């Protein structure tokens, strides 16, 4: 199970002003979607609209996410980050065309078994993780 944060190029384009963003002084806990760590109080975050889909079609959502204004290392690996363990999450399984096939809400500490169940379906190509309450995109999961 591979946990995929937003591409570094996306974060770089936001930080350099190539794409529009709003600067936000963190209260603490705002989730960076590049390093998958939460902001410390007082840190500057950039808030912008992001579409996590490489597919077209009706499920292609765009929504608000944060990245650190400072350079940060893109999350790599398959261990579930604390940022996700601390939250109520929505996991949505999509087919190769980006159509949603299944969706469930889960306590982040129990995310792994749900992700594995969704990815065990032959017709699920990828899973998107979102914060369940605000609905903002967190990361993608692939086998
Ligand atoms: Zn970051």
The rough form would be described as globular
Low-pLDDT stretches are none
Largest sheet: 5 strands, antiparallel
Bound molecules: zinc ion
- Tally of separate helices: 3
Count every beta strand, where a strand is a DSSP E run of 2 or more residues: 8
Helix content: 10-25%
Mean pLDDT: 97
Distance, first to last CA: 5 Å
- SSE string, helices as H and strands as E: EHEEEHEEHEE
Strand content: 25-35%
Alpha-beta content class: alpha+beta
Radius of gyration: 15 Å
Strand order of the largest sheet: 1-8-7-5-6
Primary descriptors:
five-stranded antiparallel β-sheet, 3 helices, three-stranded antiparallel β-sheet, alpha+beta, 143 residues, 8 strands, globular, binds zinc ion
Question: Could you characterize the architecture of this molecule?
Answer:
By secondary structure, the protein is of the alpha+beta class. Helix content is 15%, strand content 33%. It contains three helices and eight strands; from the N terminus they run E-H-E-E-E-H-E-E-H-E-E. It has helices spanning 8-15, 82-85, 111-119, and strands at residues 2-4, 22-25, 44-50, 63-68, 88-94, 100-107, 126-131, 137-142. The strands form two sheets. The protein has a five-stranded antiparallel beta sheet with strand order 1-8-7-5-6, covered by helices on one side. A three-stranded antiparallel beta sheet has the order 2-3-4, covered by helices on one side. The chain is globular, with a radius of gyration of 15 Å. 31% of the residues are buried. The model has no long low-confidence stretch (mean pLDDT 97). Bound molecules: zinc ion (ZN). Zinc ion binds at residues 32, 34-35, 37, 67-68, 72. Zinc ion binds next to strand 4.
